[in-house]
Design goal:
- Helices cover 43% and strands 21% of the residues.
- It has 9 helices and 12 strands.
- It folds into 2 domains: 6-125, Response regulator (Rossmann fold, 3-Layer(aba) Sandwich), CATH 3.40.50.2300; 130-231, Arc Repressor Mutant, subunit A, CATH 1.10.10.10.
- The strands form 3 sheets. Strands 2-1-3-4-5 form a 5-stranded parallel β-sheet, sandwiched between helices. Strands 6-7-8-9 form a 4-stranded antiparallel β-sheet.
- The relative contact order is 0.11.
- It starts with 5 loop residues before the first strand and ends in a 5-residue tail after the last strand.
- It is of the alpha/beta class.
- Strand 11 and strand 12 (228-231) form a beta hairpin.
- It has helices at 14-26, 37-47, 63-71, 87-96, 108-125, 130-134, 162-173, 181-189, 197-211, and strands at 6-10, 30-34, 51-54, 78-82, 100-103, 136-139, 142-145, 150-153, 156-158, 178-180, 221-224, 228-231.
């Protein structure tokens, strides 16, 4: 089974969040919730969601601030789902970097279609090599299906946590290139997280125990001591 996309709901309205939770869970999304802007920033850096559904009218800040801040370091898709219907709000949100804008009330089918479109756009734009753009990375018996968000080794499915999968996917998209510890940490956890390599090393140790026959002598992800990690390239 592939990893499910994670959705961060940023809204103080319990009824709306419960409703969205039900709809999205039924469609195989994992849900994280933040009730205000401060909690949203914490959730974004801690959980690295795949997409954000954002209400602009929050109790502690304007949601526009979240869009502006996130866009300074990340291309995480942001769909505004707001009670604000004025055209100037839509224009400002989109100009700041929101991917889409939906006003309440909304149709379930429309929202799900907008989410799929936003995720498809980010998947097609963040790969740098042809393998990533085609949606599959293959190196011998190591296979990542980016579209299904699943990894198999020797034909067996490997279960990774959200962050473990993102680390492996990032390295695969830059296969053959050394990615520094700092770069990986910034991509996965965001710039507000201290560049403490320990959090990355713990995740990498877990990844290697899941994908390598002998974790101490890795075959797929190589450590460049003092610098970072490198995914091996396909021999083909």
């Amino acid at each position: 089974m592939g990893n499910r996309h994670s959705v961060l709901l940023v809204d103080e309205d319990n009824n709306i969040c419960n409703y969205l939770n039900t709809i999205l869970s039924m469609n195989n999304y994992d849900i994280i919730r933040a009730k205000d802007g401060s909690e949203a920033f914490m959730m974004i850096t801690s959980y690295c969601p795949d997409i954000i559904l954002l209400e602009l009218s929050l109790p502690d800040m304007d949601g526009m601030r979240i869009i502006k801040s996130v866009r300074e370091w990340s291309a995480i898709p942001i769909i505004v789902v707001s009670s604000r219907t004025h055209e100037r709000d839509k224009i400002k949100a989109l100009d700041l970097g929101a991917d889409d804008y939906i006003t309440k009330p909304f149709g379930n089918g429309e929202l799900l279609a907008r989410i799929r479109t936003a995720l498809r756009h980010i998947r097609n734009s963040d790969g740098v090599n042809e393998t990533a753009e085609r949606g599959v990375f293959v190196c011998d018996d190591f296979v990542i299906d980016f579209d299904r968000r699943c990894l198999t080794v020797e034909g067996k499915a490997v279960h990774l946590t959200q962050n473990e999968y993102k680390i492996v996917a990032l390295l695969a998209k830059y296969a053959g290139r050394v990615l520094t510890y700092e770069y990986i940490i910034k991509c996965i956890w965001g710039p507000k997280v201290e560049s403490d390599n320990q959090i990355l090393r713990v995740n990498m140790a877990n990844i290697r125990h899941k994908i390598e026959k002998t974790p101490s002598t890795p075959k797929y992800i190589i450590t460049e001591i003092g610098v970072g990690y490198r995914m091996i390239e396909s021999p083909n």
